[in-house]
Amino acid sequence: MREKNGIAVSFKGVTRRFGDVRAVDDVSFEIADGEFFSMLGPSGSGKTTCLRLIAGFERPDAGSIVVHGENVEGVPPYERDVNTVFQDYALFPHMTVHENVEYGLMIRKVPAGERRRRSQEMLDLVKLGPLGGRKPSQLSGGQRQRVALARALINRPGVLLLDEPLGALDLKLREEMQEELKTLQRQVGITFVYVTHDQGEALAMSDRLAVFNHGRIEQLGAPAEIYEHPATAFVAGFVGASNVCRDALAVRITGNARPFAIRPEKIAMARAGEPLAEGWVGVPGKVRSVTYHGATTRYTVTVESGELDVMRQNAGDGRTGASAGDVVQLTWPRAMCQPLLDEK
Amino acid sequence: MSPAPALSRLSTLFYVRPRLLLALLLAPPLLWLGVIYLGSLLALLLQSFFYIDEFSGTIVREPSLETFRQLFTAANADVFLRTTLMAAAVTVAAAAIAFPLAYYMVRYASLRMKAALYLAVMLPLWSSYLVRVYAWKLILAKEGIVTWFASQLHLGWALDALLSLPVIGGPSLSTSYIGSFLVFLYIWLPFMVLPIVAALERVPRSLVEASADLGASPRETFRRVILPLAFPGVVAGSIFTFSLTLGDYIIPGIIGNSRPFIGQAVYQLQGTAGNIPLAAAFTIVPILIMGAYLLAARRLGAFDAL
Fold first, then answer.
1. A22, A78, A306, B210: which has the highest count of C-beta atoms within 10 A?
2. What integer pLDDT is reported at residue B306 of this predicted model?
3. Do B228 and A94 touch (CB under 8 A)?
């Protein structure tokens, strides 16, 4: 049963190989009880394999996985206190919505009356109240997603695993569901482990997130921590946009060759030759291109030994501040330069 | 270069009037199916309402139920029962053998292994049916390899015990119901394997994982998810094995005891006996049996998951 030591899932030195590829390479982390934890990364980075290791569909080649105090080595998926919302939803096509949602309870031999009552409660919770009699093929993508969620949550698992559950939905619906999922998680108080390749989604929803690359965790922390203080060039580039400055460009700006990242929206654009504030760096350059994005405008500025992107809010009357060919000075507080770990 | 104007005009015509194209495309198969195939079947069935004049031996072309009265005799009922039981036994055995094979092919076999198994299943279909049946006659004969193998393994007594069983036994495998059963099973097995493979291919792995994730043991997952979704494939396969066994007249003629099956009865009646009306009446029986079979399959929910 659930042990209240505050740790829902813990990985210690977990490795999973597929042939010669280390899909998960010596990964260690802990997920706190009741946390909304995201695993973010590009495809093939090992995040989904980590999820499948927790569910029990994959077995680690090395290391140990502990779920609520129990080492799950050799425990099959059907004996684990976790449930999964699959990327393709994996609803049983030959069963109605009710039968799908009740599946876990039926397996556990919960009487039919109670099953149906709890299934109806769950469907009400995910706002599918009257659709219990339908077949999955008669539902829209968003509705199927909710059925998959209800089918997993009805079992009151210790940990809920979500494998890119919003990936197949269109943008508007996705944003709506992000909101709802977050609310739902607070309501039910279950640990959510959420796999996504969408950095915006991970930042908006998570209490903490782990950024995966090549089977390893590059950085783990709260969303603001990861965004404001990316540890590596990969994180700086994958989570939001960044100017990664290294070598000659780094020397030109900070006086040493240590690589650093600076977010485009942290950079101010001033007229050339304007005096610098105390503790600010100044980089003269020439605007190469201006791209209008609605809420923001992006300027690509050519500077000595490189290029920097600058992002400005389109506040006010929407007139852009500079145009291609203008000579400008880019300036920002020196403290905003985020030093990066050397990748090699 | 632009296409010839006439062809281009034709393409435009078909594009603007898609129904015209559809009608042109469907006309040959519909003519074939409707007139030649169903028409000839109907003509045959109509024959069953004629009857043979007992004195002159000629066909009386007047509607009558006389032929059906002749059809439902005790001897003929034996033929129907024998054939139906054989078809049922072959179907059940084929499903029992084909399902694990198909499941292995779909879920576990590597691509190479899968190709090899496909080939192994299909290969017999590429050689002559008669050659294979006669090959089996040699295999099953008293002097054949099965008997030899059994005696080498000191299992001759087991074979003898099998052959001494009432009804299904006989002097040798090739002259018993067991023999005809084995050959039927061999000949029709591919028709069971392929539909089941096709059905299992359509069950995504994630459904199996979802079932396990929700607490179902492999046995329960099989019973509640895999089998119901693959069942239409089993039914499709069983329609083949059942109807092919019902209608076959060559295998029981070559292998088995000499008691006739439906196909042989029809063959004799329209050939040597020259009793076309009774032969036609005989062919109605397998059609009725198949109809009942399909209804039963629908009752079992075999087509629900389609």
1. B210
2. 53
3. yes
The pLDDT value given to residue B304: 61
Distance CA A297, CA B212 (A): 50
Task: Answer for the pair B234, A120: CB distance below 8 angstroms, yes or no.
Answer: no
Q: Both tokens of residue A344? A: 């090699």
Q: Are A145 and A126 in contact (CB under 8 A)?
A: no
Q: Tell me the helices (H) and strands (E) count for chain A, helix number first.
A: 9, 18
The answer to whether B223 faces chain A, any CB pair under 8 Å, is: no
Which residues, 6 or more positions from B214, have their beta carbon under 8 angstroms from its beta carbon? A78, A83, A103, A104, A107, A151, A152, A155
State how far Cα A279 lies from the chain centre.
Answer: 34
Q: How many CB atoms lie within 10 A of CB B98?
A: 26
Q: Contact, A214 vs A25, CB < 8 A?
A: yes
For the entire predicted model, the pTM comes to: 0.80
Rounded to whole angstroms, the maximal C-alpha distance in chain B is 82
Say which residue the tokens 């210690």 belong to.
A12
Q: Given A56, A91, A107, which is nearest B216 (Cβ)?
A: A107
Whether the predicted pLDDT of B89 surpasses 50: yes
What does the alpha-carbon distance between residue A4 and residue B109 come to, in Å, rounded to a whole number? 44
Q: In this complex, do A107 and B204 lie within 8 Å of one another by their Cβ atoms? A: no
CA distance A87 to A164: 5
Put simply, whether A155 touches B (Cβ < 8 Å) is yes
pLDDT tens, B23-60? 999 999 998 888 888 888 888 888 888 888 877 778 88
pLDDT number for residue A3: 45
Mean pLDDT on B198-221: 92
pLDDT confidence of residue B102: 95
Separation between Cα atoms, residue B291 and residue A27, nearest integer Å: 61
Confidence of residue B274 (pLDDT cuts 50, 70, 90): confident
A271: enclosing H helix or E strand: strand A268-271
DSSP A79: G
- Nearest residue in chain B measured CA to CA from A85: B210
- ipTM for the predicted complex comes to 0.83
Per-position DSSP letters for A65-118, written without gaps between them = EEETTEE-TT--GGGSSEEEE-TT----TTS-HHHHHHHHHHHTT--HHHHHHH
* pLDDT mean over B137-158: 88
DSSP string, A143-174: HHHHHHHHHHHTT--SEEEEESTTTTS-HHHH
How far apart (Å, rounded) are the C-alpha atoms in residues A91 and A89? 6
| Token pair recorded at residue A86 | 């699959």
Give tens-digit pLDDT for A215-242. 999 999 999 999 999 999 999 989 988 9
> pLDDT, tens digit, for every residue of B123-137?
888 888 899 999 999
Strands (E), chain A: 7-18, 21-32, 36-40, 62-67, 70-71, 82-85, 159-163, 191-196, 208-213, 216-221, 243-245, 260-262, 268-271, 280-292, 296-303, 306-313, 327-333, 338-339
Q: Is the pLDDT of residue A146 over 70?
A: yes
Report A:60-79 residues touching B (Cβ under 8 A): 76-79
